[in-house]
Specification:
The chain has a domain at 1-46. 59% of the residues lie in helices and 0% in strands. The chain has helices at 2-46, 62-71. The mean pLDDT is 81.
Length: 93
């Protein structure tokens, strides 16, 4: 009985606290608007720093690469496997 009463009290307390937390979050967001505008202006004034280009690395797991190769047109030379646009009777009329 005490556990159930504690749950009810905690639920009511959290529901009463929720509007206050939402209002404080809204107030903080409105107060951050001028700060973010100034930060954006300062970043634009500094300009873009030239970062050396790094080569793109494929991080697809090996098992996904196998599935992708199997599902691609290159993996199916006939192009008549599952999921192809051509049906089994597309050549006959």
């Amino acid at each position: 009985m005490a556990g159930g009463l504690l749950t009810v009290v905690a639920t009511i307390w959290m529901l009463a606290l929720l509007p206050v937390l939402l209002f404080l979050g809204l107030l903080l967001a409105v107060m951050m608007i001028p700060v973010l505008r100034r930060l954006k202006r300062e970043i634009e004034d500094v300009g873009v720093v030239d970062v050396p280009h790094r080569p793109t690395v494929d991080v697809t797991p090996w098992h996904r690469q196998v599935v992708n190769g199997w599902m691609s047109q290159a993996g199916r030379p006939s192009a008549r496997g599952w999921g192809s646009a051509e049906g089994p009777r597309s050549g006959r009329r």
